[in-house]
Specification:
This protein is an alpha/beta fold. It contains 16 helices and 19 strands. It binds flavin-adenine dinucleotide.
Length: about 450
């Protein structure tokens, strides 16, 4: 039986990036992927008429340097998020034409505090314990801001960024996430921010290009890893189809899924406890497809953010030259779970009702309505990414990255920069590869 230098578990951006670096360093590497495709949380679907949808992750931003490099390396085209009119800010029943000062003040305060956090070690801050057991909602409620501002900021930060509710994420995790992405402006904005542009052919194409660039036979699809028998000098990785011996293993999957693998011997208690306390967030991303972008005729950009209603955000997601127009809507946390409990027809009705309130009656009659629930995906189980529950950063955070003998940890949830994003996934894969082949850092 051939012994690999490294077995990588998972062919998302983290695993693929790790494999690239390792192969580049001359190490015998294989990637075991549970699904019948690469890319993980990216999934591009092209409808019969050519309308293209990214059902998973889609945007990249100008400060995401790993993604910039990959897009340039593979010569992929990008296009900016369309903004042909005004965005809607649905705020306490009004539609102000700019962010009210009370929202700006709350975001500024979050930015100020976040700059005090080292993203590599959020647990080291002098007030880490206090902030780790305080929810974002509780902190917002002490900021002498109007209820509407508290609700709005809670929804766009906890929902739009962390795909949770403000009542379930800690202030410490929020501050970590904000600093990891370079501040609320970089995280929330379209122009110049994390939602600046999309990959022309769809985000999944980039993952496919990365995979195609690896030596033949490196990627083994439909090989879910069930068990890892490990020692300080190597491991045997067991899938449904066989056993793969290796000197090192990089586990490049979301933490809760990493916790479902059976390790022998068991992992140290701190690492095991961490994976039990990092559940995936929950966002529902749905696409309403229309013959034409009717909202643009009304001077609207299709972008909206709301302090109430089941949809927190919408965006004009129409690719240039697309045969039809796409309005994409997002629900987060409790709203997303509430929608999920309805049957598809009711869910469609509720979403279109809300789109009609925002953009007018034309929104009620899309030609297509496409949804994809990442909670139903056994190899993802939620999205956009996972977050430590209250108290977890300070009690178990230090176990996030350190290798355990032959085992190394990657995946966007282990990144210190752009955690939760593609870019963080790539960073994590390169970091884990560098732990094994330190002289071949990208
Ligand atoms: C709806 C949605 C919208 C998003 N929007 C954006 C966005 O606009 N921009 C952005 O930057 N990010 C976005 N994200 C987040 C982004 O997609 C992720 O951060 C990134 O893709 C994670 O990459 P990863 O390699 O860490 O993990 P994953 O992509 O989850 O890859 C893990 C891989 O491991 C496989 N796997 C799991 N368990 C096993 C096992 N036991 N054995 C073998 N294989 C296994 C999985 O099948 C998967 O292929 C979004 C995500 C979603 C779902």
């Amino acid at each position: 039986m051939t012994v690999s230098d490294v077995v990588v578990v998972g062919a998302g951006f983290a695993g693929l990036s790790a494999a690239h670096a390792l192969v580049g360093a001359g190490l015998r590497t294989i990637v075991l992927e549970a699904r019948d495709r690469v890319g993980g949380r990216v999934l591009t679907r092209v409808l019969p008429d050519g309308t293209q949808l990214d059902l998973g992750g889609q945007w990249v931003g100008p400060t995401q340097r790993h993604m910039q490099r990959l897009i340039a390396e593979y010569g992929l085209e990008t296009y900016p998020t369309p903004e042909y009119g005004r965005p809607i800010l649905d705020y306490g029943g009004t539609r102000p034409d700019r962010r009210p000062d009370e929202i700006v003040a709350l975001l500024d305060r979050l930015d100020d505090l976040s700059r005090q956090i080292f993203p590599e070690r959020p647990w080291d801050h002098p007030r880490a314990q206090e902030w780790d057991t305080l929810t974002l909602a509780a902190w917002l409620s002490t900021q002498n801001a109007p209820d509407t501002a508290v609700r709005y900021v809670g929804r766009v930060i906890a929902g739009g960024l962390l795909s949770c509710d403000a009542g379930e994420v800690s202030l410490l995790d929020t501050l970590f996430y904000v600093t990891s992405g370079g501040g609320t402006t970089a995280l929330l904005d379209t122009v110049g921010g994390a939602q600046a542009y999309r990959v022309g052919s769809g985000a999944q194409r980039l993952a496919e290009r990365l995979a195609a660039d690896l030596p033949e036979g490196t990627i083994r699809l439909e090989e879910p890893v069930r068990r890892i028998v490990h020692s300080p000098t190597g491991a045997h990785v067991e899938t449904d189809h066989g056993v793969h011996p290796a000197r090192h293993v990089i586990v490049a999957i979301p933490p809760s899924l990493a916790g479902r693998i059976d390790y022998s011997p068991s992992l140290p208690a701190q690492r095991d406890a961490l994976t039990q306390r990092m559940p995936a967030g929950y966002a529902l991303k749905v696409h309403a497809i229309y013959a034409a972008p009717f909202w643009r005729d009304r001077g609207l950009s299709g972008l909206s953010t709301s302090d109430s209603g089941i949809l927190t955000e919408t965006v004009d997601n129409t690719p240039p030259g697309s045969p039809r127009a796409v309005l994409t809507a997002f629900a987060y946390g409790i709203d997303a779970h509430a929608l999920r409990r309805h049957d598809p027809a009711q869910r469609r009705h509720l979403v279109l009702d809300r789109l009609a309130e925002l953009f007018g009656e034309d929104a009620r009659a899309p030609e297509d309505f496409i949804e994809f629930d990442w909670c139903d995906e056994p190899w993802t189980r939620g999205c956009f990414s996972a977050h430590p529950t209250l108290g977890t950063w300070t009690a178990y955070g230090p176990a996030l990255r350190p290798p355990i003998g032959a085992l190394h940890w990657a995946g966007t949830e282990t990144a210190s920069t752009w955690n939760g994003y593609f870019d963080g996934a790539v960073e994590s894969g390169l970091r884990a590869a560098a732990e094994i082949a330190p002289d071949h850092r990208h």
